[in-house]
Design a protein that fits this description.
Blueprint (H helix, E strand, L loop, with lengths): L9 H12 L3 H9 L5 H7 L3 H9 L6 H34 L8 H15 L11 H13 L13 H6 L2 E5 L7 E5 L9 H18 L27 H15 L4 H26 L3 H11 L33 H18 L31 H4 L10 E2 L2 E2 L26
Antiparallel strand pairs: 1-2, 3-4
Helix pairs in contact: 1-2, 4-5, 7-9, 9-10, 11-12
């Protein structure tokens, strides 16, 4: 079947049709003079074969046999195009409803993987490389601009792909329909470390699927070491890797008890912004990720409420030891220490009752006086003194009142609420 080809102009389209089907020059004259502009017009203008033949019968100065021959050839061209267009439309409908998780063709899948290696010259172990199914899904999402906020906990790597079996069952007796069910597996333990590992695999799949060159940047100078890779590649790995390492670095500042929850929320919020801008802006994903990396940097700052258990002693977290959580004696005792520490200066709104001269205070608590009896200014130590940064005022000396392990007081020129001293 020879399918007619639509050209840029009306005359070129009918000229190509006449040449392909060996039509008479007078048929070309009729087509140019008709209201038909495109092949789609021809497809729906004539409803029956008789309509095509009646159109050819208007050709002047030709005998009946010649008109029948030209009518049959034009009818064949009309039928061929209708059949080809129907198949094309059916293919588009099937493609749009196809499952995103369906595997790509073997040639296409190998091509995107080879493309990634040719640019980066790196590979990863099978427990870090994404599965073929995940790469296929990311490829279709990028190609159709249907990016989704993918659930990181469902990410599968290549090791899972080669070690998992699929059970095949026939839907009905005698029918050539089969139902495939993958081997059931337990859900991964939700920890920050596991989330980061799965996030790395997912970002890697996006980079593999989007490793093609940007077609909208023709005429760009050759890429050099200082060039921005997002100007040349749709989804460069260096851009996604920068996002991943920030997630690793910032998440370490969050207390372990809430680290996983905080990390997942921050990541989902960021990728939701990617989805919205990628679908609406027309920019490649790499450029979207790069722009949001800088615009949303402040949202990756650890909130103060997450740091309430970070002590002033060197910035170390005084969290309960592993295994001593809620309901255990060790956990309760540790919480009491935190409350005592907060009561003695960090979270006290009014001036507390002083420790009193000569009274022994514990390590990390606030002392009203130095060991030699020098009175300290409570307001300076809690950054509310209006006198200034002088060495003393009517309320006492402007020195740090943090009690150290040796029993002496810090005495530094900084405030108690800012002291990180320890012995």
């Amino acid at each position: 079947m020879i399918a007619p080809v639509q050209k840029s102009t009306k005359e070129d389209t009918w000229r190509a049709l006449v040449d392909d089907y060996k039509l008479h020059e007078k048929v070309y004259t009729l087509l140019v003079a008709s209201p038909l502009e495109t092949l789609e017009d021809m497809r729906f203008f004539w409803l029956r074969e008789e309509d095509v033949k009646l159109f050819v019968d208007t050709m002047p100065s030709e005998n009946a046999d010649s008109k029948r021959l030209q009518g049959s050839r034009l009818t064949r061209a009309w039928c061929n195009y209708r059949q080809w267009a129907t198949t094309r439309d059916a293919g588009k409908s099937h493609q749009s409803t196809a499952e995103l998780d369906d595997l790509l063709e073997e040639v296409t899948l190998a091509g995107v993987q080879n493309q990634f290696w040719a640019r980066h010259h790196m590979t990863y172990p099978s427990d870090m490389m994404p599965s073929d199914q995940l790469v296929s899904r990311c490829y279709r999402e990028l190609e159709r601009r249907l990016l989704t906020v993918y659930n990181i906990w469902t990410v599968k790597d290549r090791l899972h792909q080669v070690t998992t079996t699929r059970k095949r069952e026939r839907v009905a007796a005698g029918a050539n329909l089969w139902f495939f069910e993958e081997e059931r597996e337990s859900l991964p333990q939700k920890t920050a470390g596991k989330y980061l590992s799965l996030l790395h695999t997912y970002l890697l799949s996006l980079s593999i699927a989007g490793g093609g060159k940007r077609t909208d940047r023709d005429g760009m100078p050759p890429e050099t070491r200082g060039s921005d890779p997002a100007d040349y590649i749709q989804v460069p790995w260096t851009t996604l890797e920068q996002y991943y390492h920030r997630a690793v670095r910032v998440s370490q500042l969050v207390p372990e008890g809430t680290r996983c929850q905080w990390l997942e929320k921050a990541d989902v919020d960021e990728r939701a912004t990617w989805v919205q801008e990628f679908r609406e802006s027309g920019l490649p994903l790499g450029k979207v990720v790069q722009d949001n990396f800088h615009k949303r940097a402040a949202l990756w700052q650890v909130p103060v409420i997450q740091m309430q258990y970070i002590s002033s002693e060197g910035g170390k977290a005084n969290l309960p030891p592993k295994g001593q959580g809620k309901g255990t004696p060790g956990g309760k005792e540790q919480k009491k220490k935190h409350k005592l520490h907060l009561k003695n200066g960090l979270k006290t709104k009014g001036k507390p009752s002083g420790t009193g001269e000569g009274k022994k205070v514990g390590k990390g608590q606030y002392s009203d006086t130095m060991r030699d009896g020098t009175k300290l200014c409570w307001f300076f130590n809690h950054k509310t003194c209006n006198t200034g940064k002088g060495k003393t005022c009517s309320k006492g000396a402007h020195k740090c009142g943090l009690a150290l392990q040796s029993g002496r007081v810090c005495g530094g020129s900084h405030a108690f609420s800012e002291c990180c001293s320890k012995e």
